[in-house]
Amino acid sequence: MMEDFAAFDLLSEAVVVVGRDGTVVHANDRATSLLGLPRAAVGKAFDELVPLVDESGAPLEGEAARLAGGRLRLAERLVHLLLPDGRRRPLALTGRPFAGGLVLSFRNAGRRERLDRARSDLVATVSHEIRSPLTSVKGFTRTMLLRWERFSDDQKRTMLATINEDADRVTRLLTELLDVSRIDAGRVQLRRQLVDVAGVVYAIADKVGHRPEGAGRDLLVDVDRDLPPVLADPDKLEQMVTNLVENALKYAPESPVQVRVAAEDERMHLSVTDRGPGIAPDQRRRIFEKFGRGRGERRTGTGLGLFITRGLAEAHGGTVWCDSTPGEGSTFHLVLPLGPTQRVVPAAS
Ligand code: ADP
């Protein structure tokens, strides 16, 4: 039996084969070191050798035997190994049934490993986000160079407009990545001044309202006339609000969008409400994470916008979050501290 599993010893992953009765049939070298197994592990109960707990600390006893008896493939899940000194080692566990039981594979899910994975996810996403506009730029320029005379001026203009947009997309991505690295390093630089939020919000509404894709759309703005100025970096404030408004226009294309701004409890409260598809409860935190996009999201985007918005809001001592009822719409809230309390009083005439 042992020899059947000798190939597992070549793997860099930790693999343990558990029989239907829950005893260890084979453990490769990597598993022996990662799980701290004794040399003579074969034939002993897996649960006794490898004390696993779930995220809440509840023991997963009998789990291996139960799974080994079943036919289900176990999707990757995070478990913790209880070490002899009481500490816990996070592990990513996957399982696959085979005729005689179950093949369990473990991956170290500690901080460094998570960082390594995050880094390779970043490279994959960034390469994709750069490659797809470049492919389009290359395709259109080549077509125009080869068949210049065959196209009308209008057709050429359309192709140039696409190239122009694709170039903007790459520039935007690079700008976003720089913002992300500043946020990650805690080095967001704010040029704070007293800002008239109404001016910023109306300017954004004007800009996005005039874009071709925003034409004819309802973008309603309601700013409390008594709102005192906010102590903020005006460019960053514009960036945060633009992101929320553009998202509403993008993800809720058929719905009116309402921006409201008011002072509440010494803070500026800005909300952007749409009546679009909404966001499922289990996605509401994820979308604020780096590269966090809604499940199966197909529209263009990098998933960095809300991460940056949150980073900028926090750098201002504020917060951002979202409420949503799936099927009915979403409201994104941005709360920032107000400036010094004195109101701007119109000069006496
Ligand atoms: P991006 O738009 O580039 O994907 P964001 O960080 O701005 O990145 O948004 C993250 C995800 O949140 C989006 O991919 C989308 O799935 C979801 N989302 C954001 N705003 C809305 C909204 N108003 N309605 C529904 N989903 C939204």
Descriptive account of the structure:
- With 349 residues, the chain is α+β, with helices and mostly antiparallel strands.
- It is 37% helix and 24% strand.
- The chain contains 8 helices and 13 strands.
- The protein has helices spanning 29-35, 46-49, 63-69, 111-146, 153-184, 197-209, 234-251, 305-315, and strands at 14-19, 24-27, 52-53, 74-82, 88-98, 101-108, 193-195, 219-223, 230-232, 257-264, 267-274, 319-325, 329-337.
- The protein has a 6-stranded antiparallel beta sheet with strand order 2-1-6-5-4-3. The chain has a 5-stranded mixed beta sheet with strand order 8-10-11-13-12, with helices on one face.
- Strand 10 (257-264) and strand 11 (267-274) form a beta hairpin.
- Helix 6 (197-209) packs across helix 7.
- The chain starts with 13 loop residues before the first strand and ends in a 12-residue tail after the last strand.
- The site of adenosine-5'-diphosphate has 22 residues, from helix 7 and helix 8.
